[in-house]
């Protein structure tokens, strides 16, 4: 399989969870599925929260989609629908930010 | 104090209420045929060896022209399915015309018919994405899908698609049931050896033919195992994802897929069935109240704009089962495809199984 590319509504969350799993973090006790989530995007855009079903990444449904710019190399560029991890807030609520 | 996730899902709930009033068609499914060369025990379509009354090529051409006139193709994705869509003799006539009109499209297929030549023709016809069903290792796959040799043929088809190097997303979809869940780790190794873009892993749904196989439904322990598996692979950076199937609860939402739960049916998604009936998601039980019209009797836009009331309110709103549930705002009664319209309750609800 190719590496998991972008389209991560919670790339930061997953990365942070992975870090917690590896021991760097002192949060609440792990829940059923492992450490608690870290920092989901606080500037969530609900209009971009479109399930992709089986037909491909949601950015293909970008309302700004321009066929001429639909170059395969760009398909897995920075998320267009979901905030990039860099855009996440520096701090999160106490209940989610160990 | 609400978590960020909860606040996001609150915002999404508000947005969905807006979509109920002003739906936004983003995915249009075309079921080209109900014929299939496999006989999957879990098929939601209850595909038949032969089925009459299929829309003609001329009818598809008219539909494609009208939809282009009525909707913005830049916002719309055409999703081709069946049956096995490649069994439709006029497949390339229909999709070639769609491509000519400017549609972007993808397909679900069992891939058993995808030779190198077919893969090339799919690329020439503008196919962008494809999802292929693999439901277990060789013997298991063949047994569950009712076609001896089906696994080998599908794997050849997948390789032909990959080798074409023309598609933006070559995906494998696996339906996990109580029989094949033990093969997940071995299947992962197989998938990891393929140059695919994503592996979509979903649970067997209590719909269609699968209702005849209650012993193959996942148990609570199976679900936890499945979701832990997906989560673990995603944390490790693999493109493994759960489908749009169900609300997963506050802990798992946002972790097994790249969006928060919502059911597309009737707000983002509509379908035109092989006989011209118009509905929401093709996995939804076909009964009079879920069929919104027929393309032979009305223009698609009129049906989309003036029908679909069933799909434009929360399922939970009138359900005794959901009454008082603290998750109802985010779950909304879960998915239409697994809703029991007779009992007015979900056939599958993870409350009590995955979360309280």
In short:
By secondary structure, chain A is low in regular secondary structure. Chain A has one helix and no strands.
Which secondary-structure class do the elements of chain A indicate? little secondary structure
| Biggest interface and residues each | A-B, 52 and 64 residues
Portion of residues in helices of chain B?
25-40%
Strand order of the largest sheet of chain B: 7-6-5-4-3-2-1-8-9-10
Number of strands of chain B: 12
Order of helices and strands of chain B: HEHEHEHEHHEHEHEEEEHHEE
Shape annotation of chain B: globular
Report mean pLDDT of chain B, rounded to a whole number: 93
Number of strands of chain A: 0
Mean pLDDT of chain A: 48
Structure description:
The complex is a heterodimer of chains A (98) and B (356). By secondary structure, chain A is mostly loops. In chain A, 11% of the residues lie in helices and 0% in strands. Chain A has one helix at residues 11-21. Chain A is elongated, with a radius of gyration of 16 Å. Chain B is of the alpha/beta class and 356 residues long. Helix content of chain B is 31%, strand content 15%. Chain B is built from ten helices and twelve strands. Chain B has helices spanning 4-21, 57-70, 91-101, 116-124, 138-145, 150-164, 184-192, 220-235, 300-306, 328-331; strands at 27-31, 77-81, 104-109, 127-133, 169-176, 198-203, 240-242, 269-272, 277-279, 293-294, 339-340, 345-346. In chain B, the strands form two sheets. In chain B, strands 7-6-5-4-3-2-1-8-9-10 form a ten-stranded mixed beta sheet, with helices on one face. In chain B, strands 11-12 form a two-stranded antiparallel ribbon. In chain B, strand 2, helix 3 and strand 3 form a beta-alpha-beta unit. In chain B, helix 2 packs parallel to helix 3 and helix 4 crosses helix 6 (150-164). The model of chain B has no long low-confidence stretch (mean pLDDT 93). The chains are: A little secondary structure (98), B alpha/beta (356). The interface between A and B is large, with 52 and 64 residues.
